[in-house]
Amino acid sequence: MVDLTLIEQLRRMARRAALRAGMVLCERYTQPRKVKSKGPRDIVTDADSAAQLTAINAILERYPNHHFLAEEDIAAHPDEQGQWHIPSGIVWIIDPLDGTTNYAGKIPMVSVSVGVAIDGKPVAGAIYDPLREEMFEGAQGLGAMLNGRPLLPITQVPLDDAIICLDWAREPEKRSRAVASVTALAPACRTLRALGSAALGLAYLAAGRLQVYFHYGIQPWDCAAGVVIVQEVGGQFISPGGKPWQLGEMELLAGHPGLLEEIVPTLALVPGWGISSNEGQEPSAIRQLYHKAGWGYNDHITKYSMGGNAMTIEDRVQQAIEQILGDESLTDEMDDPEAQTLLDWGIGVARQLGEQTSGMDDVQAEESLETPLQNLRRVVRRTNKLIGGLPYSDAEVMAEDLAGIFELSAQVPGLAIPLPDNLAALVDNLMQLPPRDALERILLLLRPEVSNDP
C-alpha cells in the first residue's frame, strides 16, 4: 500500500531541492558561460554542475542514504538497447538544468526537474522554471499544483484544436522520425511547438497550456517529475504502438487518453511507431501509399485550394497517384487490393466534391466545401481508428466504430455509404478474419458507388 505521508514528504523535498537549484541558475544566468561538449548536440555549462550539486546536497541533508540518478553523473548510462534500468528502493532522478542549449544562448525557456521513484515508479516530483518563478509539483494520489494552487484535470479537445509539443533527440535517425511525425500531425492539429525543455513541455501539458507532448529520445531525468504531475491531472503516457510507457523508455507520447487514441493512427505513418495489434507485420499498402504521397491520415483528401490555376482536390489526389506510380519500389504494390481501393475511393470522392464547385467563385466554392470536407475528415479519422484497432477484441466496440463511419458518411455529398442490413453478422465475420483480410474487407465495404470515368 502507498504511504501517502512518505510521498508527501518526498514531494516537499523535491520542491525544496528544485527551488535551491533554480536559485543557482538565476544567479548565473547573466554571467559569462563556461560551456563544454559531452557529445554530439550535447553540452554542459558550469551552471548545470553547480545546480546539480546544490539539489543533491539539499536532499542529502534530509535523506543521507537515498540513491541518485542525475544527468551530470558520468557513470549514468542506458543499456545497449537504449533502456534505462532504475534501481529499486527510493531513487532521486534529477535534471539540474533542462534546456541547457537555451540557457547557454540566453533563451529564457529552462527548468529544474527533481523527481523521485520508488522501485522504478515515479511517485513525486517538482519542475521549477526559475526565470518565471513557476513551480509545478505533484505526488501520487495527492494531486498536482502550480505555485501552490491545485491544477485542474486536463480535458479532451479535438485533434484539430490541439497544441502539440515536441523536443528533439540527439540522434539523426530519431530526429528524422520526429520530422516525419511533425509532417503527419501538422495538417491535423492547431499548431506545434518545441520548447527546448522536456520537463517544461510536460509541465505545460499538465497545466493545460498544450494538449500533447512527444519525444523520441527522452531521458529519465527529463521526465521523472513530469510523469507524476501529468498523471495526477488525468494524463496518460504511451510508447510506440500505443502500449503503456514505463520510466526508462526513451520514446513517449503524453496527453489526454482520448486524444492519444485519436493521434496514434496518424503516427502509424511514421517508421518505428506502428500499431500495437499488428506488431511484426509489414506496413500495409495503405500506409505505404499515404506516406509516399506525402499525406497525413487526416488530410489526404482535404488538402485543397480554390480558383484559377490553384490545385483542386482532384488535382491533389491525381498528383499523389502519379508520384506513387513513379516510385519503382511501389509499382508492385499498386496491384494490392487495399491500395487500389484507396485510390479509387479518393479519386471518386474528389471528383464528386469538385463537381459541386463548378461555376462558383473562390468564396462560394470555399463556403460550399467547408462542411463536407470537415465531415469527410471525420470519416477518414474514424476509418483509420477502425483500421488501427485491428484485430478487435470487442465486437461491440467494432460495431460502434463502423456505425459511426456510416453515419458520418451520410453527411458528405456523394459519399453516403448504406448501413449493412445485419451489422452484427458483419462484425462477427470481421472478428474471425486475419487483420489484413479484415482490412481489405473494410476498405471494400466503405467504397462508395462513385464513377471514376474521366
Which helices and strands, and how do they pair?
Blueprint: H1 4-28, E1 35-39, E2 42-45, H2 46-62, E3 67-70, E4 90-98, H3 100-104, E5 111-118, E6 121-129, E7 134-139, E8 143-146, E9 149-150, E10 163-167, H4 172-185, E11 191-194, H5 198-206, E12 212-215, H6 220-231, E13 236-238, E14 252-255, H7 257-267, H8 285-293, H9 313-325, H10 337-356, H11 362-388, H12 395-409, H13 423-432, H14 435-445
Parallel strand pairs: 3-4, 10-11, 10-12
Antiparallel strand pairs: 1-2, 4-5, 5-6, 6-7, 7-8, 8-9, 12-14, 13-14
Gross geometry: elongated
Proportion in helices: 40-55%
Say what oligomer this is. single chain
State the domain count.
3
How many helices?
Answer: 14
Largest sheet: 7 strands, mixed
The whole-number mean of residue pLDDT values reads 76
Low-confidence segments, given as residue ranges, are 274-314, 316-335, 450-454
Strand content: 15-25%
Structural class: alpha+beta
Number of DSSP strand runs: 14
Order of the strands making up the biggest sheet = 3-4-5-6-7-8-9
The SSE string, one letter per element, is: HEEHEEHEEEEEEHEHEHEEHHHHHHHH
Rg from Cα = 25 Å
N-to-C CA distance: 69 Å
